[in-house]
Design a protein that fits this description.
The complex is a heterodimer of chains A (about 350) and B (about 250). Chain A has about 350 residues and is an alpha+beta fold. Chain A has helices spanning about 35-45, 85-95, 100-115, 130-140, 160-175, 190-195, 210-215, 220-225, 320-325; strands at about 5-10, 15-20, 25-30, 50-55, 60, 70-75, 150, 180-185, 195-200, 205-210, 230-235, 240-245, 245-250, 255-260, 265-270, 275-280, 290-300, 305-310, 315-320, 335-340, 345-350. In chain A, a hairpin with a 2-residue loop joins strand 13 and strand 14. In chain A, helix 2 (about 85-95) crosses helix 3 (about 100-115), helix 2 packs parallel to helix 4 (about 130-140) and helix 3 (about 100-115) crosses helix 4 (about 130-140). The longest helix of chain A is centred in the middle third of the chain and has 18 residues, at about 160-175. With about 250 residues, chain B is mostly helical. Chain B is built from eleven helices and no strands. In chain B, helix 9 runs antiparallel to helix 11. The relative contact order of chain B is 0.12. The chains are: A alpha+beta (about 350), B mainly alpha (about 250). The interface of A and B includes residues 47, 82 and 144 of A.
Chain lengths: ~350, ~250
């Protein structure tokens, strides 16, 4: 499967974009709406004219038609042909290439098995659920055994559970087929779960590219930090196991309990939205609850961010405006912070 | 349950039966002054029988039918072809659209005086009128149908290796069928309305001509027979296209 290199690509919002996707890699292109994610996919697929150069394994493919680039493209709306049944949808590209009928039947059968949709073979798209449509569209995209798979927010219209399940299947499929894959999304959780590397794109510019943990714990710019939720990143000075499943880490003057998976915790990320602020001491054991002093209050996009100094760390908590108005928070006031155990992201070192 | 369904289906005939009964009663009781102007339903049925038995209705009906079939087929094929090209090729659309937009609103019968002078009074006249009547609306609906196919389907087909011609025939035209059939269905009925009008004005044969002869003889029963034939043919043609449309577009709706 080829590596892909984009050199100085300019189209619409994208200006001189350079990007390299490694052979058999699963790269997630992550960014807000209108950042230029789909434009880059269309450029790679050759569906739009562009300035710059696209190279597969170092060979320019700019002059090649979409059909000659050996690409499987899964569009956001899936766009299954409504007048064709599942079998005909999957067989479409094979028939276009005038493959022998028995070869078409064999390949369709293979894909129906692979995507676990054999029972849907004769159904028409209007009688398929969102998840089933997604599988059929993927089978259709894979029919010609492409070298590169482009996925444009294919799971955005599905419910959370189905989306999560299909993500895992997609990842397994990628591992077994080894197709170089670019997956576009604006959903951070999706990106984190599925990516080998994440490329964060904003206003047509690649802001940062790296492994998911790298992007979380070492955001390259304020834009990236803001996009991923402006997490509080704390360095851990010590780490010892409390019991099977939880570990205590020291971050400045705070000891925080985090989930344990046998690795040494080097850093933790606390998202402002996952830190609760209380004016009174919260009831219950004082695990992951800290006293602190408010040092700053600011408003960002209808949310109020409260910066609190606790144990030598500056932690930012975020709350909705109406909650802030119900409280009496001012700079210099003493408050309590409560951390959600399962929402703490952990940057681990090699095994202990 | 089955009986109830049959009963419900049959229920629709009841208003028609009541209407025919009222018609018969009103005519027989001479409730409308001048009975000769208002023949009863049974008189019309008898006249239908006489006209058929005396081989008056058949040949006239056949003349009209042939004109409709030739004019409508030619108009639809031409409308479909030009409509597909206009819808698919933007440059052709830009070139032809102003002309089509200007000519399309002219009522088909508005062409009659011009065509009478150009073609003379003969078989070509009603066929030409039906051609014009069918061509523009079918062209317009086809071009609109082709143009409004979601562009993403075209992009998908392109990534799957389809050529422009293959995309047109395997994706765009099938997806434009609902629009195309709307034009065909409406114009198939309209072709009958137009042929009758053309025959009434200028042609000595056909259902329209028969109506004009009946009018000069003050034969209301014959006129009503002709109107019923016209109504049945409009209805049948429209229903036939609606049926084909339903069969072909069942997965698009």
């Amino acid at each position: 499967m080829p590596s892909i290199r984009l050199e100085n690509i300019s189209k619409y919002v994208c200006r001189n974009v350079n990007l390299e996707v490694f052979n058999e890699e699963f790269l997630v292109l992550l960014g807000p709406n209108a950042a230029g994610k789909s434009t880059l996919l269309n450029v790679i697929a050759g569906l739009i004219k562009y300035k710059g150069s696209v190279l597969f394994d170092g060979i320019p493919v700019d002059q090649l038609l979409p059909s000659k680039r050996k690409i499987g493209y899964l569009f956001q709306d899936l766009n299954l042909f409504p007048h064709l049944n599942v079998t005909s949808n999957i067989a479409y590209s094979l028939k276009i290439q005038k493959q022998p009928q028995n070869e078409v039947e064999r390949r369709v059968e293979e894909l129906l098995q692979m995507m676990k949709i054999k029972h849907l073979a004769s159904r028409y798209p209007k009688r398929l659920s969102g998840g089933e449509k997604q599988r059929v569209a993927l089978a259709r995209a894979l029919a010609m055994a492409p070298d590169v798979l482009l996925l444009d927010e294919p799971l955005s219209s599905l419910d959370v559970q189905t989306s999560k399940y299909l993500r895992m299947e997609l990842k397994q499929l990628h591992s077994s087929l080894g197709i170089t894959t670019i997956y576009v999304t604006h959903n951070l959780t999706e990106a984190e779960e599925i990516a080998d590397r994440i490329a964060i794109i904003e206003s047509g510019h690649i802001e940062q590219i790296g492994e998911p943990e790298e992007v979380f714990f070492y955001p390259g710019s304020e834009k990236v930090a803001d996009f991923i939720g402006a997490p509080n990143i704390l360095d851990c000075t010590y780490c010892h196991s409390l019991s099977k499943g939880v570990v205590e880490v020291g971050c400045g003057g705070l000891s925080i309990i985090v989930p344990d998976d046998g690795n040494t915790v080097k850093k933790i990320a606390l998202f402002p939205r996952d830190i609760y602020v209380s004016e009174r001491k919260p009831p219950g054991p004082s695990i992951n609850r800290f006293k602190g002093i408010i040092t700053k209050i600011s408003t960002v996009d209808n949310m109020v961010r409260v910066k609190v100094e606790a144990g030598g760390n500056q932690l930012t908590a975020e709350m909705q405006h109406h909650i802030y108005q119900d409280m009496d928070l001012v700079v210099g006031k003493e408050v309590f912070l409560i951390l959600k155990l399962r929402s703490i992201k952990i940057y681990r070192d090699e095994e202990r | 349950m089955k009986n109830l369904k049959r009963f419900k289906k049959g229920w629709g005939i009841l208003p028609v039966a009541i209407f025919l009964m009222m018609w018969e009663i009103v005519a027989r009781l001479n409730l409308i002054p001048g009975q000769c102007f208002f023949p009863s339903f049974s008189t019309v049925v008898m006249e239908f029988y006489y006209l058929s038995a005396n081989k008056v209705l058949g040949p006239n009906f056949l003349s009209s039918l042939i004109r409709v079939l030739i004019g409508f087929s030619a108009g639809s094929i031409a409308g479909l072809l030009v409509g597909i090209i206009m819808g698919w090729k933007d440059v052709v659309n830009k070139a032809l659209n102003p002309i089509v937009s200007l000519i399309f609103p002219i009522p088909a019968l508005g062409w009659l005086p011009l065509l009478m002078l150009w073609l003379g009074i003969g078989e070509a006249l009603p066929i030409a009128i039906i051609f014009i009547c069918s061509f523009f609306p079918i062209l317009y609906n086809t071009a609109t149908g082709i143009r409004t196919v979601d562009k993403n389907y075209i992009q998908v087909a392109r990534t799957l290796g389809a050529s422009d011609m293959k995309i047109l025939t395997s994706v765009v035209i099938p997806l434009a069928l609902p629009n195309i059939f709307t034009g065909l269905r409406l114009e198939s009925g309209m072709a009958w309305r137009v042929v009758i009008a053309a025959e009434m004005v200028a042609i000595p044969t056909g259902i329209g001509a028969l109506m004009m002869k009946a009018e000069s003889l003050m034969r209301m029963d014959i006129i009503i027979v002709c109107l019923v034939v016209l109504s049945v043919m409009c209805f049948s043609f429209e229903k036939m296209f609606a049926f084909i449309e339903a069969k072909l577009t069942v997965h698009l709706r």
